[in-house]
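Support reply, case 0932

Customer input (verbatim):
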Amino acid sequence: MKTDDIRSGFLRQMAAIAEAHRPSEARFFSRLAKAPARVATSPELLGDIHLVYQGAMHATRAAVYHLPHLDTPALRQRKLRIFIDDDGLPNGDTHHYQLTRVFRNIGARLKLDDEEFGSVDELCPKVDPRLAHFMRQVQLLYPRSHGAWCIVEMLSVEWMGALADALAAHFPTVREEAYFSECFDNKVEERHAEEALSIAADTLCLRRGLAEQTFSDAQTMACALDDVWQLLDDIVVKFAAGIDANSTCARAVAHEDGQG
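Our regenerated output:
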């Protein structure tokens, strides 16, 4: 098979996987946007959302350092540029710190300090088992092929846009936060997706036996991301139900006091 055919076939199949798992169609984002203010602006709920989202993102950022097959000087340089975009921002800033500032600035009650997001093995006992499962999948998949990395980079701009829209429904200035504005204005995520796909395609052209594992890992990671959005949706639903139950109880007590 010709190199151009390998490349185009790879891009088509990756696009098909991404299309089948679009984050913007996950219920979490629309539910959060439409949630009553007493739910969506709760410091406790925002803290829970931050922990899950930051934990998932942290796992993928850390795993990028373990990507395989990037051993030549040119490939190491390309890999380094992606590291710099994530962790080498000016003044020691990183996407991790930027994301925390978003949630701190909208009033979230944070569950973990930034530096508590360390190794996956240390973090997993501190988080929901479903998030822990996702982080362990990332830890397994990223060093095995480029499939998981590519699908994360392909979908990231869409889920960042969906999250920004959901939060902006309650916090109108949130898109001005650096975590969102720098990525959207500079198209960082789009560049990462293009570069990840390009690197992966180059690798497959040289090592054609990697294709099956690459597509399998991309599919597994896409499904794992779906599970993260479902976990976040479940958190919002449970929190809203708890608030409604407490409100009903309070009204019942007030009614009984009034009759007494």
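We compared this against your earlier run and they match. Two observations from our side: The two ends are 85 Å apart (CA to CA). DSSP finds twelve helices and no strands in the chain. Please reopen the case if you see a mismatch on your end.
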